[in-house]
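Discussion board: Methods & Data

I've been asked by a reviewer to show the raw model output for two of the constructs in my manuscript, not just the figures. I'm not sure how much to include, so I'm pasting the format here to get opinions. Each protein appears as its amino acid sequence followed by a line of discrete structure tokens. Is this the kind of thing reviewers expect to see in a supplement, or should I convert it first? Here is construct A:
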Amino acid sequence: MARPEVKEKHQAATKLAMTPERIKKAADGAKKQWADNREKMVDIQRQKWIDPETRANMLTANRAKRVLTDDQVAEIRRRYYSGCSQKVLANEFGVSKTTLHRVVRNISTYQE
């Protein structure tokens, strides 16, 4: 069990810490901190906003350009359906297996 003098000191310190003025001051500080953080987040969101035209230009600028011509696509499909493997065709045409798969399966920009 705690010694009586330690218990009394603890109770006195708790009473001092829990005064209404200190509670109000802490609450006001927390509100101000919250408001400051909210304003920072709003500023960050404003900086991230980009007008639609600029966003569209950014999306098309980052998009990969078409690597194969229409004739090459037709040749790849003809040879693939004749039995040639995608790996061999990808190496021959200098594209990745993923790109060749898209060509064969008619996905994305290689649709006819």
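Construct B, same format:
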Amino acid sequence: MKCSIQGCPGEYEKKLVFHTLIYGNEIFIFEHVPTEVCSVCGDTLLKPDTVLRLKVFCRKQVSQKDLCFCMNMHSRRTAQSLSA
């Protein structure tokens, strides 16, 4: 497929790349992400289903982290109230 950047004569090629995604206050780095990369300018396209899968993964990780943080805070409060 021809590159979508105006004036670029390149063609998109399927490649596996590193992709960085910022979700909330977290930074996620994924490797081996399937993309199409222009052979000339390097423009990168990700399929919508790939983007959705990455976002769902990030959402789950952040939710689990928040849950762990809440559980840890609750455990600390319980421990403090038991020691008083």
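Answer (T.O., handling editor elsewhere):
This is acceptable in a supplement if you add a one-line summary per construct. For B, something like: DSSP finds one helix and three strands in the chain.
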